[in-house]
User: Fold Protein-tyrosine-phosphatase from Cladocopium goreaui.
Amino acid sequence: MLGTLEKLSPQDIAALGVVAVALVVCLVCFPCYLAFVAATGCGPPRVQSVCSYILRLVKRRSKFNYHKIDQYIYLGSLPRTMEDLEELKSKGVGAMVTLNEAWEMELSNRFVRDDCGLEHLHLPTPDFFAPKQEDIQAAVRFITAFVDKGIGVYVHCNGGKGRSAVCVICFLASFKDMTPELAYDHVMSRRRVAPMRGSLGLHKQWRAVKRFCRSFGKRRREAREAFTNSPSNAVATPRPPAPPAPRDDERHVVRNVEQSDAQDANCSEVTAKPEDLAKMVAPQTEPPRPELPQKLPSDGETMEGQDPQSPETHVAITAPELQLPQLVHDDPGDGDAHYDDEENPPGDSDSEEEPPLLE
Assistant:
């Protein structure tokens, strides 16, 4: 062996070294790299497709089955015959989302769209891997468009447990107000899917779900802030409510205004109660005066409605003496005589006594 090596030239030894390194890379490093890509999902799409194809060689072929996840959402495996599609159409399905690669499919996209009359969205994704973020967004928009119209949507991959389950979970978390955990539990309660919540959250498909939910929540907050801060959509500042109309039992305000030539009107507020205000506004009326009889009875007469036999009820009221001014009259017959009373001179005075005014 050593003699053989001694006979080799340096160029031959270099060539043998290159071959040995290539063998080590092919037999050791490349399988380890494929295992790393399959476990983490970090790698170019072509390497992921190679890993998917190698793993599918030992995987058993799944039968066609599906489950109803939501009112218009169906999740299942790959349809392989025309009868499978007709069964889906009988359930109200009018659109389909496919996450298989081209080498996995047995029915072409043209056949599904033209011959079966189903709206079709094809998002090629390697098996055992998670869809790309832009593919998840496209799937969620596609599902939302048909669900809003009341049309059923069938989402599938090869077994209906990994890639397709990721899209359905993201849709529920986005438009059904669910957290990723609640959406996963909801799907798991309807259909047995891949245990992507395990591995301490390091599963490649679960990380894709969490990343989509974070980005979707961020876009929603930014859109809400932009809508709130937009001048055209700014919420007007609410005005305080108008005070209620004053009632009768409320206090009234009376304003007294005094105007002056030198200064403006001076206003003073006086608070008054309703009863005081009524007194102030009502006109001042004099109290009624008692009416006196037009004719005074004499000594022998009685007033109407009075018993003549009860003299004790008579009350004599004398009128006060009136002081009249003394008038001076010039009488040619009496010389310079002055009389205090013009109507009753001394010579013509009546001898009868003056009757009382009231009895």
